[in-house]
Amino acid sequence: MFVPLPFILSLALVAGAATNTTKLNKRGLAFAADNGTDISRANQTTGVVSWVYNWGLIPPDYLASSGIEYMPMQWGAAGIENLAVTVKGLGSKTILTFNEPDFSEQSNINATYAAQLWMQYIEPLKASGIRLGGPAVSSSTTGRPWLTDFMAACSQCTIDFIPIHWYGEGTGGFYDYLYQVHGQFPNHTLWITEFAETSSNDSVVLNFMNETITALDGLDFVERYSWFGYFVSSQR
């Protein structure tokens, strides 16, 4: 069984890649593999990850006894009419919304239509005390323009924080993008809900992980972050 490096690093993040084994409220994991036994076991022993999401609304079974908070996401427009019932049934305190709506390969929602969906189905959850995460755009050339259009169209929306994604090589590009978004939306805290170094060199990826999570832990405008946990492969 071949297990790719990023999955191993995901477990390192859960178990405390930077030697700190106290659970950290900021630290999460974006992880969609069906069998999370290794993550659950690691977190029960020396775990520092406090939350996980898998791009869906319903938590996987393996999280039931893991001690990890599940963060539900309304990935796209489909099924959004059931959002309130599902989220309230889970007792969720925070939700994520619309995964990379600026991409045709992802949730692919026009910014104006996304604002209409928000006001009809998402905004009412605020009255129940649920925190609302904005749409999570990509770091491509379409991401920030889409988010700008959405924020203008959804001026009456309650957006408690803005999630963003980033993939690339080197910490410089990551920090540049992070501060660009913060500079554009200084009144919102940020969640980095997907990020990873894309180098094939294991030392480069691990060094990137350790440096960036240390930096993110010290930034007041970054509320939470989650490393992108690549899926376990069955290649031989």
Automatic annotation (TrEMBL):
GO biological process, one term: fungal-type cell wall polysaccharide metabolic process
Residue ranges of the TM segments: none
Domain Asl1-like glycosyl hydrolase catalytic: 28-232
Keywords: Signal
GO cellular component: fungal-type cell wall
A Pfam family it matches: Glyco_hydro_cc
Sections of the chain in a coiled coil: none
Signal peptide positions (record): 1-19
Entry keyword Signal: yes
PANTHER family: ALKALI-SENSITIVE LINKAGE PROTEIN 1
Protein name as annotated: Asl1-like glycosyl hydrolase catalytic domain-containing protein
Organism whose genome encodes this protein: Mycena belliarum
Taxonomic lineage from the root: Eukaryota, Fungi, Dikarya, Basidiomycota, Agaricomycotina
